Amino acid sequence: MGVRWDSALFLVLVLVVSFAEMSNGGRTSTFVRNDDLSLDMPLDSDVFKVPPGYNAPQQVHITQGDYEANSVIVSWVTPDEPGPRTLLYWAENSELKNRADGVVVKYKYFNYTSGYIHHCTIKDLEFDTKYYYDVGTGKATRQFWFITPPKSGPDVPYTFGLIGDLGQTHDSNRTLTHYELNPIKGQTLLFVGDLSYADDYPFHDNVRWDTWGRFIERNAAYQPWIWTAGNHELDFAPQFGEPIPFKPYLHRYHVPYTASGSTSPLWYSIKRASAYIIVMSSYSAFGKYTPQYKWLEQELPKVNRTETPWLIVLMHCPMYNSYAHHYMEGETMRVMYEAWFVEYKVDVVFAGHVHAYERSERVSNIAYNVVNGLCTPIGDQSAPIYITIGDGGNLEGLVTEMTEPQPSYSAFREASFGHGLLDIKNRTRAYFSWHRNQDGYAVEADTVLLINRYWSSLEESKATT
Ligand SMILES: [Fe+2]
């Protein structure tokens, strides 16, 4: 009897395992780590060093300054007095130095007063050119450089880095270092929200916005970081007199939103090389008739895939996420916008928020009409791939708890810190790789060859490089 029960139990187990395998579309990495918290780097850490000299510019960072990528916004902070609102810039092979004018803003947040925050737009740049720029005066002048992208075109190769939820811990520093030292060089960073995590400190200690600005300067002063707002940018704290959402973020990080007809810096779009990048705001109104909805409704039909074949959407909260943490938080956004993403054949949607990595299959879940019961994601070759890359390494730590079994929409998931690279080769092919911080710089922990949705209906799984 006992033997028969054991056999029956074994048979049941086999069936359960087989069923789990059958219903399991993807792979959960065997690379399992503890969800121990990562500590912020101390204030006297080298990465936060204040540059020497009276009123020396600090927290220098750049972003694209217009729709077409002929402009760059340079931002910096002077601590003691406003100083000059201008900067000098020149092309690498030119003697002629030009001056660009900017604005200076300042804000108070609870008992904190910011330094003088400069935003200066350099316009009418040549494509594919290296420029140097000087900020500050006298002995405190600091020099940086950047390279403009090639003019937009269908087969222009270009490499984007992907980082989200970075914070300022030792792990954050590892993530940025790995991005910098990856032999595949990212030329522009797509940042999917949650920057400094200053709001995790008492009264949202805005000093941590300053330290974060100094931490990222080593990369963000030399290549554009394309900004997406996350929930940690809200800084909404009416309990101590700060009821205006996004106040520190919007003072510190300017984006070229008016150039794409947007009415808010929280959602906008840019063209860069062969990519069209749409930035959305998970924490602004996005229901029907809202400004964000109306803007996106106009925006998607504008995208010319012959000029910019790669249609990329950035948002903070993922629409497809199989971790227990933040599970289904992106559902309202999915209900509103997924059908458009399928209709306009978005290639890839990058999000953060979940402190882990996940890549979806090409799936959609748009058939449901309240009464028909069709509410399961299905394979859809017009749908984007959804990639969650909220694994920058902030002080809240990794999320390791996953929904089980792994849903069929989830192709690969792993709770490790890291960064991503989207290496666009031409109008049909782009190579995405995910790099975890524990590996050597060149190691790819997950990869996918993306086949452009507008230019080819070929399935990725059937493609060869
Ligand atoms: Fe978040």
From TrEMBL:
Keywords: Glycoprotein, Hydrolase, Iron, Metal-binding, Signal, Zinc. Belongs to the metallophosphoesterase superfamily. Purple acid phosphatase family. Residues 56-151 form the Fibronectin type-III domain. Its EC number is 3.1.3.2. GO terms for molecular function: acid phosphatase activity; metal ion binding. This is Purple acid phosphatase. It is an enzyme of class 3 (hydrolase). Its cofactor is Fe cation; Zn(2+). The keyword Signal applies. It holds the Pfam family Metallophos. It comes from Hevea brasiliensis. It comes from the Eukaryota. InterPro entries: Calcineurin-like_PHP (IPR004843), FN3_dom (IPR003961), Metallo-depent_PP-like (IPR029052), MPP_PAP (IPR041792), PAPs-like (IPR039331), PAPs_C (IPR025733), PAPs_N (IPR015914), Purple_acid_Pase-like_N (IPR008963). It catalyses: a phosphate monoester + H2O = an alcohol + phosphate. Residues 1-25 form the signal peptide. PROSITE patterns: FN3. The keyword Phosphoprotein does not apply.
